[in-house]
Write a structure and sequence with these properties.
The structure holds two protein chains of two kinds. By secondary structure, chain A is of the alpha+beta class. Chain A is built from four helices and ten strands. Chain A is elongated. The N terminus of chain A is likely disordered. In chain B, about 10% of the residues lie in helices and about 25% in strands. In chain B, strands 2, 3, 4, 6, 7, 9 and 10 form a seven-stranded antiparallel beta sheet that branches. The N terminus of chain B is likely disordered. The chains are: A alpha+beta, B alpha+beta.
C-alpha cells in the first residue's frame, strides 16, 4: 500500500545546525547560508509497516515519531497528554504530532484508517548523525472504542544498519481519559459514529494502563453499543520496522 | 519484548547448572492492568534447577497459598531452604493499577542465576502473575519482560467476594479497589483444570448486587500481559 511521508525538515535542520556548531568541523558554512540549498545531509530512512490484527477495530491514521531517548509518547501509570487523549478518543493524530514536533527528529502520519487485515507503510527519515539514541514510536486508535490505542513506545533503532528489519506485535492501551461506557455517542468509529475528542476526563483513573478489552452487549453489558465482533485480544497490530536507506 | 522472553524460556535447557555468577541488579515491576491490584510481590533469585511453578503441573502448596490469598510464607520457606536470594513486598502493600515498584538484588557469592516474580491478582480466586525462572542477564543493560496471568488451578473461579483467602477456601479474599459488587451466585461451580494454566480472564457482570459474579465486567477484566518486569543489570 502506498505510504504518505511528511518529514519535519524544520527540526532536522535546526538539529543539524546545533550539531555542526558543537563539532566545529568546518562545515559552518551550511548554517550561515541556508538560502543556497546545499547538498542534503546523509539520511537514514525507516519504513514502519503497520498491519491491523483485529477483527473489527479499524486503526486510525498512524502517528509515527522519530525521537531521542529522552522523549516518551506515554508511560503506563502516567497521565496522558492532550495530544494522546485526542488521538485515543477521536483518532486524530494532529495534536500528538504537534506536541512531539517540539522535540521530535521527524514525524509522519498515515494516509488514512487501516482496516482489519489491512496494512500501511509509513516512512520517516532522520540524518545519519542523529542515529545515536534514536527511538521510534507509532501510535494509533482502535476506533470502535472509547479511548483504546495501540502503540510501539520508543523502540530503540539506534543500531539499525541499512536493510535491518525487526517485527514487533503491539498491545492495546487505555488512555485513561474517557470512561469505557461503550456508548455509540462516545465511539467515533463506524460502530458508533459518535463524538471523538472531549477535553473532559471522566475515566475511573486519569492515567494510561493496558486496555481490559471491550465487553460488548453480547457479553452482558446491556447498555453497550458494541457487539461481540468488536472484541479484541492482544496483540492488536503488527509493526515491521525496516531501515530502507 | 515477548521475543526476549521466549528466548529466555527456550534457553532454559541449555544453561549449565551450578555456575556461580555474581550479578547486582534492580527489578522494577509495573502493574499494567486498569482494574487489578497485586498482593505483595515475591522477588527471588534462585538456582538453575528450581522453579516456583510449571504450566501443566499441579501447583505446590506454597504457590496455592500465594495464588488464593497472597500469602508468601510457604514459598519463602521453600526458597530459603535452597539458598535463594529473596525480597518480599517491595511495594509495601498492594500495588494499584498503573503502579510500579522496584527492589535491588545481589546474587554475589551464590549460584542463583534464575529470577522469578509472583503475586496474586486481586480480586480473583486464584489468579497470579508469574515471571518464571528467567535467566538473569549478566551483561549490563535493561531487559524488559511482559508477564501473563496464570490460574493456579487450585480453586474454582466462582468470583464471589467473601473474604476466602486461605488455601482451599472458596471465594475471593479482598477487593482493594472497592469496585466489586455483592450477591453473586457464583460463576464456576464445578472443578477447574487442576494444573497451572494461562488464566482465561475474569467474567464479571454489570449487576452490582446480583448476577453470577461479584466482579464488574467493565472493571475487573484484563488482557495479557498484566505486568511488566524490567531488570536493570549494573
Amino acid at each position: 500500500m502506498k505510504s504518505m511521508t511528511k518529514v519535519s525538515r524544520l527540526f532536522a535542520i535546526t538539529s543539524l545546525g546545533a550539531a555542526l556548531v558543537a563539532c566545529g568541523d568546518g562545515s559552518d558554512d551550511f548554517v550561515s547560508s541556508v538560502n543556497t540549498v546545499p547538498p542534503g545531509p546523509e539520511m537514514a530512512t525507516f519504513a514502519v509497516g503497520v498491519t491491523n490484527l483485529t477483527n473489527a477495530q479499524p486503526l486510525s491514521p498512524v502517528a509515527v515519531i522519530a525521537h531521542d531517548d529522552q522523549y516518551r509518547v506515554f508511560a503506563v501509570g502516567t497521565t496522558a497528554t492532550v495530544g494522546l487523549e485526542s488521538l485515543a478518543e477521536g483518532g486524530d493524530n494532529a495534536d500528538l504530532l504537534a506536541e512531539a514536533g517540539a522535540t521530535a527528529l521527524a514525524t509522519a502520519s498515515g494516509g488514512g484508517p487501516i482496516g482489519p487485515g489491512a496494512n500501511e507503510v509509513i516512512s520517516v527519515s532522520v540524518e545519519v548523525t542523529q542515529l545515536p539514541g534514536l527511538r521510534l514510536s507509532a501510535v494509533t486508535m482502535l476506533v470502535n472504542t472509547n479511548d483504546a490505542f495501540a502503540a510501539l513506545n520508543g523502540m530503540d533503532v539506534s543500531g539499525f544498519a541499512e536493510r535491518d528489519r525487526v517485527t514487533r506485535r503491539v498491545i492495546a492501551y487505555d488512555a485513561g481519559t474517557e470512561l469505557n461506557d461503550e456508548l455509540a455517542t462516545n465511539i467515533p468509529g463506524p460502530a458508533g459514529g459518535g463524538e471523538g475528542f472531549n477535553a473532559a476526563r471522566n475515566d475511573r483513573q486519569d492515567f494510561v494502563t493496558m486496555h481490559q478489552g471491550v465487553v460488548s452487549a453480547d457479553d452482558g453489558f446491556a447498555t453497550s453499543n458494541l457487539n461481540e465482533s468488536h472484541r479484541f485480544d492482544n496483540p492488536v497490530a503488527q509493526i515491521i520496522i525496516t531501515r530502507t536507506d | 519484548m515477548w521475543r526476549k522472553r521466549f528466548l529466555s524460556t527456550a534457553a532454559v535447557a541449555m544453561v549449565a547448572a551450578g555456575s556461580a555468577q555474581a550479578t547486582d541488579f534492580n527489578v522494577e515491576i509495573v502493574n499494567l492492568t486498569s482494574g487489578i491490584y497485586y498482593t505483595p510481590f515475591l522477588v527471588a533469585a534462585h538456582t538453575d534447577g528450581s522453579r516456583l511453578f510449571s504450566v501443566g503441573q499441579p501447583a505446590s502448596a506454597g504457590l496455592q497459598e500465594m495464588a488464593e490469598g497472597g500469602g508468601l510464607d510457604g514459598l519463602v520457606a521453600t526458597l530459603t531452604g535452597i539458598g535463594a536470594t529473596i525480597e518480599t513486598n517491595p511495594a509495601g502493600g498492594v500495588l494499584a493499577p498503573g503502579g510500579r515498584t522496584d527492589v535491588d538484588l545481589n546474587t554475589d557469592g551464590t549460584a542463583n542465576v534464575r529470577l522469578s516474580v509472583v503475586a496474586m491478582l486481586l480480586p480473583t480466586n486464584d489468579a497470579f502473575m508469574g515471571l518464571n525462572a528467567i535467566t538473569i542477564p549478566t551483561e549490563p543493560g535493561v531487559y524488559t519482560y511482559n508477564v501473563n496471568a496464570y490460574d493456579a488451578g487450585t480453586e474454582a473461579n466462582d468470583e464471589v467476594l467473601n473474604g476466602g483467602g486461605a488455601p482451599g477456601v472458596p471465594g475471593m479474599p479482598a477487593d482493594p479497589g472497592g469496585l466489586a459488587g455483592t450477591g453473586g451466585t457464583g460463576v464456576q461451580t464445578g472443578a477447574e483444570s487442576p494444573t497451572v494454566h494461562i488464566h482465561r480472564n475474569a467474567l464479571g457482570d454489570t449487576d452490582p448486587t446480583g448476577g453470577a459474579s461479584d466482579l464488574d465486567s467493565t472493571v475487573h477484566r484484563w488482557l495479557n500481559p498484566v505486568a511488566r518486569v524490567i531488570v536493570t543489570v549494573r
